[in-house]
Amino acid sequence: MITVISLGGSIVAPNTVDEPFLKDLISLIRMLLEEESQRRFILVVGGGGPARVWQQAYRTISGNAVSHEQADWIGIMATRLNAELIRGILGSWCTQAVVTDPTQAVFEGRVLVAAGWKPGFSSDYDAVLLAERFKADKVINLSNIEQVYTDDPHTNTEAKPIDTISWAEFRVLVGDEWAPGKHVPFDPIASRHAAQINLPVICAAGRNLENLKKILHGESFIGTTIGPL
Fold first, then answer.
1. DSSP states along 48-110
2. pTM to 2 decimals?
3. Most exposed of 34, 74, 76, 86 (fewest Cβ within 10 Å)?
4. Which string of DSSP letters, residue by residue, matches 206-219?
5. For 18-46, how does the pLDDT look when each residue is reduced to its tens digit (9 = 90+)?
6. Mean per-residue pLDDT over the chain, rounded
7. What span, in angstroms and rounded, lies between the C-alpha atoms of 46 and 114?
8. Contacts of 179 (CB under 8 A, 6+ apart)
9. What confidence tens digit (pLDDT) does each residue in 58-82 have?
10. Residue 16 contacts by C-beta under 8 Å, 6 or more apart in sequence?
């Protein structure tokens, strides 16, 4: 059983590294690996605060000479830094190097850690490609939002949380374009490919580890399921 988790950088390192959260998350993963000998995890890590800060510095200093591709590369390097941290914390549970090209990945152990690949999309797309490559039945997308809403709840008080939504409906919400640092529940490029291969994605609050346990155990949970189950 392979579980693919797209781990938002916003919960790994919102500004600096969230050490208490990472300690609790890795403890949960270790516990599940010890309890269930057939369970394996693929953790795909985002850039978070370091990506935003370094990208903003690049934009401020470069002015009109900003390149989206270069901004993406800066974000990708932040994902790799965060991924190396998580790989190190996992110790002997993760024996392979951080994956930076999902199309060439090999999975030999119990936990595989992956980071950003190349410009044009976020690490969410890497998670979808890895789920496809290793035949996972879904991607669990953990971030700093509890559910997908009908609109931005910070600007629209009438926005409602969504429990389930089709890929067609979700893609209307997030659009088709990717830009470095774009704030959406799930990357539009990743969404397009997940829709094409009929892969469900569950969006949930990453810091709610009790809720994550419910997702992993197939119990009722708080979150949004996109696409078929």
1. HHHHHHHHHHHHHHHGGG--HHHHHHHHHHHHHHHHHHHHHHHGGG--SPPBS-GGG----SS
2. 0.94
3. 34
4. TT-HHHHHHHHTT-
5. 999 999 999 999 999 999 999 999 999 99
6. 93
7. 9
8. 68
9. 999 998 888 989 999 999 999 999 9
10. 49
* Spatial contact of 48 and 78, defined as CB atoms under 8 Å apart: yes
CATH number for the domain formed by residue range(s) 2-226: 3.40.1160.10
Place of tokens 């799930």: 186
Tokens of 2: 């392979």
DSSP string, 103-148: GG----SSEEEE---STTS-HHHHHHHHHHHTT-S-EEEEES-SSE
Mean pLDDT of 147-166: 89
Name the amino acid, one letter, at 178. Answer: W
Taking the C-alpha atoms of residue 159 and residue 151, their distance in angstroms, rounded to an integer, is 5
Burial 119-142 (b: 16+ CB within 10 A, else e): bebbbbbbbbbbbbbbebebbbbb
State residue 203 phi and psi, 5-degree precision: -100, 125
Q: Which residues contact 20 (CB under 8 A, 6 or more apart)?
A: none
Residue type, 146: E
Tokens matching residue 49: 């605060």
Structure tokens at 43: 């953790």
Strand bridging mode 164-165 / 139-143: unpaired
For residues 177 and 26, the model is more confident at 26
